[in-house]
Write a structure and sequence with these properties.
The chain is elongated, with a radius of gyration of 19 Å. Helix 3 runs antiparallel to helix 9 and helix 10 crosses helix 12. It has helices at 4-19, 28-32, 36-45, 51-64, 68-72, 76-83, 89-107, 115-118, 126-137, 146-155, 163-173, 179-192, 211-217. It is 55% helix and 0% strand. It is built from 13 helices and no strands. It folds into two domains: 4-26 and 142-217, Helix-hairpin-Helix base-excision DNA repair enzymes (C-terminal) (Endonuclease Iii, domain 2, Orthogonal Bundle), CATH 1.10.1670; 31-137, Hypothetical protein, domain 2 (Endonuclease III, domain 1, Orthogonal Bundle), CATH 1.10.340. By secondary structure, the protein is mainly α. The longest helix is centred in the middle third of the chain and has 19 residues, at 89-107. The chain starts with a helix and ends in a 29-residue tail after the last helix. It binds iron/sulfur cluster.
Length: 246
């Protein structure tokens, strides 16, 4: 394999050109500034639901409660109808209100800027903390969702079973200058081409960089995935439970 810088730069260039996202080298916040509080709450709402449902519910919620003081002052019964389509809305309403209340009480209403502090907040797990760092503050981190986890394994740059393992391994193998744009590009790729079932390798702009794509082209079996689904108890998958904290 080529050296890591050349590999990741080529991958980013090809995906950016394919999805016409502009130059990924542009400092992220210059073009995409997002409110850290809304990134955090929106990411909690996105647990175990579709992106479209999250977008609708987040827009409705933030029109009424755009910041920590206002959301902390709301009752769950006022929040629930606004986020109903994201599923688990009783749990999520209590979770996001508790999260807002702690941001207010412990951090003066300002979302903290470190992974360690963020992950002490209710409902905030590794993925949510990393999303706040990247999309709210422009601080290098690697949010790993199902798309990033799946594609990294298919590329062959990691061989991991869980998103947490993938994040730890990616932090070792991806040079830091590529961390911020990595998630947005891989998520876009996962939604459009490298889909969970039936990846469109024939249309993929990074097929030469991908162990799975190269194997399929050569008529060989792709590398065996390490991320075989593992059985989880239903209770452990509810938003806010330890196993589902993202
Ligand atoms: S070649 Fe196939 S498996 Fe590899 S990234 Fe592209 S679509 Fe995904």
């Amino acid at each position: 394999m080529t050296d890591p810088r050349t590999y990741w730069e080529t991958l980013m260039d090809r995906l950016s050109a394919f999805y016409r996202t502009g130059d990924w080298r542009t400092p992220y916040l210059r073009e995409h500034a997002e409110d850290p509080f809304q990134v955090m709450i929106g990411t909690i709402l996105s647990q175990r639901t579709r992106d479209e449902a999250t977008d609708v519910a987040s827009a409705r919620l933030f029109r009424r409660y755009p910041d920590a003081p206002r959301l902390a002052g709301a009752r769950p019964a006022q929040i629930e109808p606004l986020i109903r389509e994201t599923g688990f809305y009783h749990t999520k309403a209590r979770l996001i209100r508790a999260c807002a209340a702690e941001v207010l009480a412990r951090f003066g209403g300002e979302v903290p800027k470190t992974y360690e502090e963020l992950t002490t907040l209710p409902g905030v797990g590794p993925k949510t903390a990393n999303c706040v760092l990247v999309f709210g503050y422009g601080i290098p981190a690697i949010p790993v969702d199902t798309h990033v986890h799946r594609i990294a394994n298919r590329l062959g740059v990691v061989r991991t079973r869980t998103p947490e393992e993938t994040e730890a391994r990616l932090r070792q193998v991806v040079p830091e200058e590529y961390w911020i744009p990595l998630n947005p590009l891989l998520v876009q790729h996962g939604q459009n081409v490298c889909r969970p079932i039936g990846p469109r390798c024939g249309e993929c702009p990074i097929v030469e960089l991908c162990a799975t794509g190269r194997a399929l082209r050569a008529g060989r079996a792709p590398p065996r995935a390490a991320d075989r689904p593992r059985r989880r108890r239903a209770a452990a998958r509810r938003p806010g439970s330890n196993r589902s904290r993202r």
